[in-house]
Amino acid sequence: MSAQASAAGATTPIGSDVVLAGMPLVDVVCPAATICEAIGSNAANEAVVVRITAGVPGPGQVIPGVTAVAALACPSVDFCEGVGKEDDESIVVAIVDGVPGPVTVVP
């Protein structure tokens, strides 16, 4: 599967064959026409978020203590939430302006 164009607010999955500087990206959400957030992992097996502005990807921001994020939702241009599983626990991470915050374990 390859990357696909996405309308504002739409989620477009992209396959692990899409690699940015050694980071396979698995999901992208575009809350605005020129701003997207992508999630994936880096060569050190750490989860990363990548902000894409006007089609230009920024650096991968590591999500500390997480190896993978399964899905991403962005209700606004400056706020997203990633969800996944780490050590058999469900997790949520807030992403503000492309920067991941603390990871929260779902009770």
Give me some keywords for this one:
107 residues; mainly beta; six-stranded antiparallel beta sheet; four-stranded antiparallel beta sheet; 62% strand
Give an account of the 3D structure.
There is one protein chain. This protein has strands at 10-13, 19-20, 23-32, 35-41, 47-53, 56-62, 71-76, 79-86, 89-96, 99-105. With 107 residues, it is mainly β. It has one domain (10-105). Helices cover 0% and strands 62% of the residues. Strands 1, 2, 3, 4, 5 and 6 form a 6-stranded antiparallel β-sheet that branches. The N and C termini lie far apart (34 Å).
List the secondary-structure elements in sequence, H or E: EEEEEEEEEE
Question: How many angstroms separate the termini?
Answer: 34 Å
Poorly predicted spans = 1-19
Number of helices: 0
- Estimate nothing, just give the exact number of structural domains: 1
Q: Quick check: average pLDDT?
A: 82
Tell me what portion of residues adopts beta-strand conformation.
over 45%
Q: What overall geometry do the principal axes of the alpha carbons give? A: globular
Quick one: biggest sheet? 6 strands, antiparallel
Query: How many individual β-strands?
Result: 10
